[in-house]
Specification:
Elements lengths: L4 H19 L3 H15 L5 E8 L6 E8 L7 E3 L3 H9 L3 E3 L17 E9 L2 E10 L7 H19 L7
Antiparallel strand pairs: 1-2, 1-6, 2-3, 4-5, 5-6
Helix pairs in contact: 1-2, 1-4, 2-4
The structure holds methionine sulfoxide.
């Protein structure tokens, strides 16, 4: 069966993510490795970063963790703000094909055209999220969503093995 270059790329990157996951000693190492891998290998993933939820803060806040790409002004995001807040508070992946048409969008870079944010769960609770911005409109198709959701799942599973780290 013929495969497209995009499908081949996703398969290669998914295999690299599996390797990273088995080689990383901590969730922290895994998140750092995923940010670097996706940013380097997926050419339309122009900013890749993790936000972790400080659920006991008053009010709870998403705090920027490992990321690759330009520095963002949004290092702390409340749950009622942005695409990031929407994904964390709903516990659902949010894909925005055209950020200029989404009133929730908090601008990171003028070049950003589309975005995906995937929540990370530990024992059923949102503990953070994986956020990716692209300079291309509608950069995140179903296959990309599956890859990013897989990365978020691996991080959640690793955090479950590190009690006390996930809050
Ligand atoms: N665009 C995000 C803010 C984070 S930056 O993309 C890195 C949002 O709307 O929540």
């Amino acid at each position: 069966m013929e495969t497209s270059p995009q499908a081949d790329k996703l398969t290669t990157v998914r295999a690299a993510v599996e390797r990273l996951s088995s080689e990383s000693r901590t969730a922290d190492q895994l998140m750092s490795g995923i940010a670097t891998l996706l940013h380097e290998q997926m050419l339309k993933y122009n900013w890749v970063g993790f936000y972790m939820l400080e659920r006991h803060a008053q009010p709870p806040v998403l705090v920027l963790g490992h990321f690759q790409g330009a520095m963002t002004p949004h290092t702390r995001i409340h749950l009622h703000q942005g695409i990031c807040g929407a994904a964390a508070s709903s516990g659902r992946t949010v894909v925005v094909d055209d950020v200029s048409k989404d009133s929730r969008y908090l601008a990171c870079s003028l070049e950003t055209k589309s975005e995906i944010v995937v929540p990370i769960f530990v024992h059923g609770e949102v503990v953070g999220e994986l956020d990716i911005d692209s300079h291309f409109p509608a950069a995140f198709a179903a296959d990309d969503q599956h890859l990013v959701e897989h990365c978020a799942r691996l991080v959640g599973q690793r955090l479950e093995m590190e009690p006390g780290k996930a809050n």
